[in-house]
Amino acid sequence: MAGSFFNQFLDQVQTGDEIHDWQHASRMFVDSLYRLSPKIGSVYHVFMDLNPNVTATQTNEQIEIGMMAKSVALPKFSISTKTYNAYNRKNIAQEKINYDPLSITFHDDSADVVRNFWYGYYSYFYRDSDYQEAVYNQDHKYKKRQQQGWGFTPLSNGTQQSYINAIRIYSLHQKSFSAYTLLRPTITDFQHGQHTAGEYAPMEHQMTLEYEAVQYTTGPVNEGTVLGFGDIHYDKSPSPLTSLGGGTTSILGQGGLIEGLGDTITNLNSGNFVGAALGGFRTFGNFKDADLKDIAEAELVQLGKDILSGQNPLSTVFVPSPGTVNEGIAKAVNSLPGSTNNGNNGVVNSNQKTVNNGITVI
Asked: Does domain 44-220 correspond to CATH entry 2.102.10?
């Protein structure tokens, strides 16, 4: 019996009727430069866009608040509907959309960045923290209600300015971002962590938000497109696989000749002449004594083997991103004499999606 079962198993492996190889997943998730590959939940960035009219929080501190986000839930929607009967045929009519609350968990950092953010919000809207402890020890602390403010009394004297203009959540993937912008969020719950003797887990804060609307944007991760990303506390040392970090002796692969030339053009377009010169010099040095013909033949042979074995050759070939190419073309056109472009590089594509500086507003 055991031998018969084993022989049947080998027959299935040989014929492939039940057991298949990895090629289906490769065609799905690797082809077209990983176009359909799933996003990774741990690769994200949060930016707290505070109202500068009501808070004195400095730019670096404002960026650090989002950097302390340990976990963040993306927007969730529920749609209210009503069912009508027309001769026993049901018709479902939409009535309104509800923006369900979401939660953000922060690290309880040693610099009290998140704690200070909460205190700024709390002390802006509520007057209970304005008075010393001795006032709370009086018999009737509300006796001077006309002279003292208590409870919900915003410092903006009734103008109801929001403390948080927006919270921007960026899902990062393949050198691109997909952003969810929560408009005029309001904190409905804020909870500090708890101390437990004998436990050495990091402390954290938890915050629940309600918001009035959600906006969607997408685009390449360039300077200024993802607010606060890469500005502070970020390792900007170039990778050894890039032209600025040394590069490689490949022609088509990462850090090779094609990518090095692309980096040089990009740096020239952005005005980074030092980076363009350094990248071009290192790329030239990598190929100074190299036989380009032999390298090209070897890479083409390898690409052919990859194709015959069912692999996607584009996953190992560097291709300039459309955003980089379009940005370079737009800057070149703007620099031409007599150009009438207004400077915002804005276009509208066939799907009526507004594109500004590479960021697509859906």
From this structure: no
In the chain, domain spans: 1-38, 44-220, 239-361
Query: Hey, CA dihedral for 4, 9, 14, 16, is it positive or negative?
Result: positive
pTM reported for the whole predicted model: 0.70
Q: Is the dihedral of CA 44, 34, 304, 297 positive or negative?
A: negative
Rounded mean pLDDT, 44-57: 91
Report residue 342's pLDDT band, with 50, 70 and 90 as the boundaries: very low
Half-sphere exposure of 191 (CA within 13 A, CB side): 10
Query: Cβ–Cβ contacts within 10 Å for residue 299, how many?
Result: 18
A 10 A CB-CB count for 281 gives: 12
Q: What is the Cα–Cα distance from 80 to 89, expressed in whole angstroms?
A: 20
Two structure tokens written together for 287: 């190929």
359 or 6: which leads in pLDDT = 359
Using the structure block, give the residue that is written with the tokens 């971002």. 177
Residue 42 has pLDDT above 80, yes or no: yes
| Euclidean distance between CA atoms 54 and 24, whole angstroms | 55
